[in-house]
Amino acid sequence: MFTDPAGQPSHRPDPAFLVHADGERTVAQVDGPVVRVLRFDAHGNVLGHVHVHTASTAGELTTVMGTAAASVLPLPGTAQLRATAGSVTLVVRTHPDDVLICRLVYAPGHGYRLLRRTRIRP
């Protein structure tokens, strides 16, 4: 749980995190229209980061999903991370009805690079 500068509980959701096989960690924090994705080594040093803007972009792939699948998605304003074959998949619930899915690849010394983004609407 986060706190504001006065020490009061904040309504910002806890970050999503993922521990990689090599002990490195990836963290995603949703802050309004921006998701900060950071990769840390086992000692807590930042190895790389990327900011993902959740607003729709021109030419963005949009698909439609059945409402039954919505129950497994993150809550609005939160994210989930999954490791998949050398990359990280970021799932962000940007609005009660929108989901943004991003595939990111990490390269040591270069940080994360966005491979693909898809918006899903029920």
Treating each run of at least 4 consecutive H or I residues as one helix, how many helices?
0
CATH architecture label: Beta Barrel
Query: From N to C, what is the helix and strand string?
Result: EEEEEEEEE
Name the beta content range.
Answer: over 45%
| Separation, N- and C-terminal Cα atoms | 30 Å
Quick one: CATH class?
Mainly Beta
Protein name: CHRD domain-containing protein
Tell me what you see in this structure.
The chain is mainly β. It is built from no helices and 9 strands. It has strands at 16-19, 25-31, 34-40, 46-53, 61-64, 79-84, 87-95, 98-107, 111-121. The strands form 2 sheets. The chain has a 5-stranded mixed β-sheet with strand order 5-9-8-7-6, with no helix packed on it. A hairpin with a 3-residue loop joins strand 8 (98-107) and strand 9. It is globular. Mean pLDDT is 81; it is low at 1-5. This is CHRD domain-containing protein. It comes from Pseudoduganella plicata.
